Amino acid sequence: MQLPRRFLPSIAALRALEALDRLGSASAVAEELCLTQGAVSRQLQSLETQLGVTLVQRDRKKLQLTAEAATYAQEVRQALHQITQSTLRVQMAPMAGSLNLAILPAFGMRWLMPRLPEFARRHPDVTINMTTRLESFSFTTEPFDAAIHFGDAKWPGTGSLLLKHEHLIPVCSPELVEIGRYLPAKQIIEMPLLHIQTRPNAWRDWCEMQGVSTLPEDLGGTIYDQFSTITQAALHGLGVALMPDYLVEQEIATGRLTALQPQPSEANGAYYLVWPQSKSRDPALQSFRTWLEGQAQPEDPLPR
Question: What is the CATH number of the domain that holds 49?
Fold first, then answer.
């Protein structure tokens, strides 16, 4: 379907609009785009004429976007970023193909990275570009072909492959509890608790699985944004962290952390590879997905 021209503004005009929203002045936009201020002004005027709306408020030669134009500029920024990423992908691997993958930092570092050398040996013609994402996002607004996702497989408009169930175990420094001493859940939750920001209900869910039904409204404790930082907090004796077992197995084995339960407990969520249905036949994604099927064994030990 061919769209009317007024819905397809020039890239140059859109770049000027996006830069003005980000930089705040015509002089800064002109410097970044290697244009004169007059040329920047003309680009914006041309865009206003094409769209038939006012985008810029002009006051004593100062240019400022309207509220509607600022929102438009933010959406344009995402589109320009996606165009840039797609162009880079075509330039870097025009024949073999590449895969833009969103990963969770801890899972990517400790589970995926040790396995990737094998994929590289089997598929040297495929380039994998990885970017970390902790928060939820939409494939329609982000330039990703696939993502490593934790939770369930209910991501609208996507296909999924189960990679690994998660098993959680409470750990702390041996300075707080001696190695080999196990504590009941009711006693553990009375200790200082360390919480991970992306899973605010992890401790409550774990307590329910342990049969602890009565919990205070506020469990208390400190909050961390990533597993790497919460691990450091536990190592330094700041409290008890509820950790995926694969992230702390080395620390437990070397005595840097002590496990407060004899066995980890399976969590509600799991790790999945997810991809938009529109990308299902992408050759690079198919190669990666087929290879991952052989790695998707929840109890498979990590390579050493």
Answer: 1.10.10.10
* CA distance linking residue 70 with residue 21, whole number of Å: 6
Cα-Cα-Cα-Cα dihedral of 59, 30, 67, 45, to 10°? Answer: 70
Helices (H), 128-175: none
For the chain, the residue count is 304
Q: Give the span between the Cα atoms of 284 and 299, in whole angstroms.
A: 27
261-304: pLDDT as tens digits:
999 998 888 899 999 998 888 989 999 999 999 988 655 444 33
Residue that is last in its domain, among 90, 113, 128: 90
Task: Measure CA of the first residue to CA of the last residue in the chain; give whole Å.
Answer: 53
Structure tokens at 80: 């320009």
Question: What's the whole-model pTM score?
Answer: 0.64
209 backbone dihedrals φ, ψ, rounded to 5° = -65, -25
Residues 6+ apart with CB under 8 A from 70: 21
